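WARN retry 2 of 3 for item q-0093 after timeout on previous attempt; input resubmitted unchanged.
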Amino acid sequence: MSEKPISPLRRRMIEDMTVRNFVEKTHHDYIRHVRTFTTFLGRAPDTAAPEDLRLFQLHQTQTGVGASGINGSVAALRFFFTVTLDRPEMARHLTFVREPRRIPVVLSLEEIARLLEAAPGPKYKAALSAAYGAGLRVSEVVALKVSDIDSERMLLRIEQGKGRKDRFAMLSPRLLELLRDWYRIARPAVWLFPGRDPLLPLTTRQFNRTVHAAADRAAIKKRVTPHTLRHSFATHLLEEKTDVRLIQVLLGHARIDTTALYAQVATNVIRAVMSPLDRLTPLTSENKPPA
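OK item q-0093 returned
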């Protein structure tokens, strides 16, 4: 079966992204957003006028597209018009919207223990433990290779994480023990957590399904996602009075204010702060002013 031919315009956009070394996910997302705009427009996207962009964003808002979806399309269309079409004047007609900042869902230590015990087998227990025990993103967990484990220095090498940056994550003795148990069972050759095809890594979708299934088996009522394990890692460290700047490094955050968000959910930290109300000296009948 022959593949559907790619239009010259799409090919040019793909080439522009390739030259700039965009990751595959960005390629896919940008093409998808431009395709959605083209469907709305009903004609070739290079014929769009500024009013078309305004109406498209209005349509997105009216149909309930979230802030992240709107901002993703703005980034894609700005690239398309500015770089691929060399029409930078069109970009100023696209508006980013403010995304609501929500407090992350965090599991208690007891809930984490139940979740890990509910994992279906040693592979997934080790994978979920890596997400929580090292504070990894799901994309970083599934991309781990056997060679990324440095048991002498007790570190995990994270290759090309978010922002295409390498970093080291912590490797706790308990996590190392779980990873060794899994290795002794499966002897993975390259990928630490291979997928159904042993030559390929576990997919983020498979990992996501496993987390949801484990949460159901553990009877956890909170909305649990793979990122919940990373949120819990950071929050529990903060509750143990770990310096927020160290947590920033462990998480691979570029900005400290991103890490500081966890102070809002670190309940031990919140409870430890004395309210200024408790510092007041109550007025007694002796020192009350006369009526």
